[in-house]
Amino acid sequence: MKLIAVSAGLSSPSSTRLLADRLVESVGGELGAHGHTVPAEVIELRELARDIASHLVTGFPPPQLAAAVDAVKEADGLIAVTPVFTASYSGLFKSFFDLIDPDAFTGKPVLVAATGGTARHSLVLEHALRPLFAYLRAAIVPTAVYAASEDWGSGGDEYTDGLPSRIRRAGGELAALMAARPARAEPEDDVTALERQLADLRFD
Questions:
Q1: Residue 27 DSSP SS3
Q2: Cis peptide, bond prior to residue 62, ω within 30 of zero
Q3: What single-letter DSSP state applies at residue 60?
Q4: Model confidence at 130, in pLDDT bands (50, 70, 90)?
Q5: For residue 83, what are the contacts with CB-CB under 8 A and spacing of at least 6?
Q6: Would you tell me which CATH number, out of the four given (2.60.40.3780, 3.40.50.300, 3.40.50.10490, 3.40.50.360), belongs to the domain 3-202?
Q7: Mean confidence (pLDDT) of the chain
Q8: What is the pLDDT of residue 198?
Q9: Which domain of life is it from (predicted)?
């Protein structure tokens, strides 16, 4: 299995990248506790911004962007984290996912998350991020994670779980979906495929 996180934060360091890292740690820890060793990678879209714009105009992805797109396609689990801009996901975030074949997300376990200055933007998870990945037919975990500035270091209150609790719960849900997916068959190389065709001919 392989875990990929996509962070659309624009600054360095950014709270968006920090949230992505915390979620990766949560998923990896949960899978590790059940005997799964899962390599993980965080893709920083800020480093690919020029390549994304170029691809949208020319239709040809530069090598670094092509590698990032392939990593998302091949991932067994995806964490997608964006800052909130004008009550929705960022343009950079949407532009990146517009470049990927929608069929690549069918049944793929996805955890959505966002960061913003205040808690009043938290509904972006339900009115923007979840519908986007539902349209792509992804398997979205029930718990989405929003982190406002005041959430960092917060333990929550009697009505609301703190950010660490939400991260643990969402990470556990994504880990469970990833572990439940059937193993993917390795593609045959050309020689193996030819041998199989010859064997079929001999039995005709």
A1: helix
A2: no
A3: -
A4: very high
A5: 8, 9, 10, 14, 15, 16, 90, 114, 115, 116
A6: 3.40.50.360
A7: 89
A8: 57
A9: Bacteria
